[in-house]
Queue: 4 jobs
Job 1
Amino acid sequence: MASKTLAVLAFALFAFNLQATLGEITCEHLDQDTCAYAVASTGKRCVLEKHVKRSGEEEYTCRTSEIEADKIRNWIETDQCVKACGIDRNSFGISSDLLIESRFTGMLCSPQCYDGCPNVVDLFFNLAAGEGVFLPKLCEARQGNVRRGMSEIEDSGLIAPGPIGGGVRFKGLPPANAPF
């Protein structure tokens, strides 16, 4: 147990030192291999975009999004976190759809990712919250019976119905499109 804690602390110190040597991060100055999951010095998340030229050639650019990271600034995600969390540096936008994929949530909720990669966890915590799911509860459910855990999450008060239903619905209240 102590060696695991020591390894996480060593990794965090390494990541901090790496970030300190890079100086101020501007998304537009990052390349394709460092853009996705980076956070600029301003606290805004970086996003990788693909543009197709008239010739059919693909060109990748990094830009600053309007999404702010929570308490994280000047951050380029490490290769260790990319691997541990099961994310891809060539992501074009990030979808909450990943949260319903068992393989992905298994990696996201693993101690290596959840305890050692605060930037990735912050991002998916906010994505999950937007879908009415509390990420710690989802990860807790993965440790036990996954079906029962998902049922408990659905019964926790927030339900995200399918496309026909409209939007997030709170139990005990009529759907958002229903008249009061």
Job 2
Amino acid sequence: MGKRKKQAKVLRIFRKVHRTTGALLFIFFFIISISGLLLGWKKNSNGYILPETQEGTSTNLKEWLSMDSLHTIACNTLHSKVSKDLDLALDRIDLRQEKGSVKFVFIDSFYEIQLDGANGNVLSIGQRRSDFLEAVHDGSLLDDYLSTDGYIKLGYTTVMGTSLLVFTITGFWLWYGPKRMRKEKKS
């Protein structure tokens, strides 16, 4: 088999791999691209995707209430202002000393309560849609729902990362291969 025929055969194989992978994973690539696009815009969404960080009255931690007191205020606020049915389990506490505020981020329904660190006043109650989008983007939403201890996320990110690598390699070769073949034909 001649060199040109071998190159053409490789191109056909790459085209088939590229097309098959794209067809099989289309919906996943669609979900990843939309969620990734929205995550890129989260801080420029006027607080819709990610609530904006509010400013408290003091950046001096010595003037702040205890974390226990702030936590109690945040939990009471979640139940009184949002819903008594929400679980009070925390995902994290995001302390913003430079802003004088602290965010209590709850696992249930991705809510956050922002408080003034010094006086405990509620600065903001918001839903962190960005946290939901991140869970969709990396597959951890299914992991949490099915309680699979990270295995779905691991499998999902492995398949999608490998597929993106395959797409990059085959896509490059589908672009470069014909150029190379034409160049060799002229010589």
Job 3
Amino acid sequence: MNAPAQAGTRRGSLLIIGGGEDREDDMQILERFIALCGGPDKRIVVLTAATRVPERVWSIYDAAFGAMNVDKRKPVHVASRLDADDAATAADVAQADGIFMTGGDQKRLLALIGGTKLDEALHAALARGACIAGTSAGASAMSAHMLADGKADLHPEKGAVSLGAGIGFVQRVVIDQHFSQRQRLARLLTVVAQNPYLLGVGIDEDTALLIEAGGGIEILGAGAVTVIDGRHMVSNVADIRNRKVPEMVDVRLHLLPSGSRYGGPCDTATPDALSDFLKIITNIA
């Protein structure tokens, strides 16, 4: 696991996207990504390791970033762990002003890059001040505890969801995506029931959670971000069989719609109930 930032160390920003971001019309989220990178004249790389069709996915973002006048854009295709351990590729990523991780399968992404030079390069880029964005699978992979597999349709179910090791930019959270559109509240509740130490973060499509270098957060796009806090929960999950619905009493749910902004130097009105979440989610490494 990577060490946390030392006091005074410059940090970049994270743009965590719930998938399905607009890539053709107003492109609000992608435009903000480019701004966070420093503008269209900066160097952008698109990491396609999560998908089995990298050229097809790259063509979509190539067109989108090209329409925004980003000339210094290039794909980083990773087909094996040997590719992810290539020193030249890692150096290219470490020096980029922005890295965009596409959707696909987060398990594939971590199987290819976890613990490699490319993994180290992502953390080095963030520490240097780059913006790292991830959509869909790329969003789920950003946390240290990654939602890897499973579903719960109507209610949370013990044992229905499994976690894996993520990249680790943020700690003590689990990120789910396509949240409202695929009705994943029960799935995220399942995670929190079994892991009350972790906060559940569900991000809607065409919606992004921005974690800023200055310690604030902002919600962008068309939807909302749902936060589930089970740290004070009373539950019988340890005593029931797998696939049974757990009792979950005193679970907090926060709904943060687009336009919500908390923390940072300009905000003095963060509700007490969100203050712990803000401290946890902005402790990026």
Job 4
Amino acid sequence: MPTMLDVAGLSHRYGGGDQTHTVVDDLAFTVEAGELACIVGPSGCGKSTLLRCVAGLIKPSAGEVRLHGDLIDGVPDDLAVVFQDYSRSLFPWLSVRANVEFPLRWRGLSKAERHRRADEALASVNLPDIGGKYPSQLSGGMQQRVSIARALASEPALLLMDEPFASVDAQTRFELEDLLRRVQRERGSTVLLVTHDIDESVYLSDRVLVLSKSPAKIVADLRVGLPAERDQITTRESAEFVSLRGEVARLLHGGQPATDAEKLAAADLAEADAAEQLADTRSKETL
């Protein structure tokens, strides 16, 4: 697959002189077209700063970011961002459809084409009939779906998501995770998502980039070998999921990447645990 995002030698510092604080330090990674990659790291390590550099919202102190080969110097037209706080990212005085259409106003599209794209995006997030409502009439989960629809309506080359499900309850979070995976596969979207949730990073992604404490460095780039079709129960109970979740947790706590032998042993242990839990469940059902 061609490279969609290329981050090379990226560093960013705040302040100057004796008050200089390095937030991210010499980061380098790529994201392929159609890939969903998650960035996970300790609180305050610089995840959001990295995302702002990728989005072109701030200019990095060193290094460069390229989107489909073009150097990012300012916010690209074919990039969209979904933020954590849905209540502040939607305009309360605009209808749902108008909110979704808002970024399209500067694309030179006709009113009919804007309507079509907005309705199509809302349908893709399972909200086909609420275009005339206002954000205040929707639940938190529905508002975040509208935020995702707004990002999708612009048909971005790269979709950035900054802890997009952190402000909703656990059940809604699971629903939104499954929604994102479905929409991403159907549209072939390229997604870079920042999260502090280890389970979410493993469940959602094709790859997990693990960052160190500030100043952030990449300590591991882990390929997720889970099936494309995932389920909130069976996937999270699988040996592969449990093993990889443990690997990410260990890295976040300062551990070193596991050797192949350690990964195999962890997978065997996780598989044995899963089998034991299944046997226990069946025993209880029999009783």
